[in-house]
Amino acid sequence: MRKNKKVIITCAPTGSIHTPSMSPHLPVTASQIADAATGAAQAGAAILHLHARSDADGSPSPKAEDFMRFLPRVRQATDAIINISTGGSAMMSLDDRLDGARAAQPELCSLNMGPLIFDFSAAGRRVEEWQHGWEREYVEGSRGRIMYNDNAYIKRIMLEIGREFGTRFEFECYDIGHLYTLAHFADRGLIDPPFLIQGVFGILGGIGPDTRNVAHMVTIADSLFGEDYVFSAFAAGRHQMDFCTQSILLGGNARVGLEDSLYIAPGELAQSNAQQVVKLRSVIEALGREVASPDEARAMLGLKGGDKVAF
Prior knowledge:
about 300 residues, two-stranded parallel sheet, globular, 11 helices, eight-stranded parallel barrel, alpha/beta, TIM Barrel
């Protein structure tokens, strides 16, 4: 793993898991997403991992037009690296999931390194009343869905987004086997280092929320990639800050945001994405590390630059 002196903070403001009924602070309109992303960048996030939603009811949307409602605003307001999701949700086809990335041609896209059960049904337990008709079935039905990316899908994303637009990837690894899949594509020459490996912990269906798993993932990644990768980690729900801290202690980077956790402390909803970024920044600085700027993160990850995107 490349151990840089500075820590890259990624913020994921909205995602596709949480729904409007779960928190009044979850950004769901284009204007709210733009404001949340900008606030997170101003607080210290170098990378903004972005999903789109429908303005009508806050449901996850893969449509390029919904991304374009906020992407230009975010770019005008900040120099942060824009990272467009190609994961979307389990309800979307691959072509749907690539719509935003094709239109935006961003510096960075997420790429799930394999299929997995993605059960977030427990997230609805605290909801007393659902605001929109789509929410309850969407959340409770997740126990019966697969977040699907097979090797053919992964290759298509690498070629159609990576090779076509010079976009690099945040490789989301939900289990150890995903590292070996990444190594397979690296060996085939479809991707080039440095690889940004984002370890994802605590999703029911993926690797569990035991902080020892962070060290295990780093150990395996070291054996497969040596110093050809940059590591980051995040965890779902209440495990968020523990896993960020563990990643930093190991020399890595970290991700926060309301996509991953709606809370800032036990039982206390986060008021904003920026609030989580500020908390993570305080942890980083307390550990004697510094926060990377967007341009420093670009250099660390070998990105093409914010002037080469299509928004």
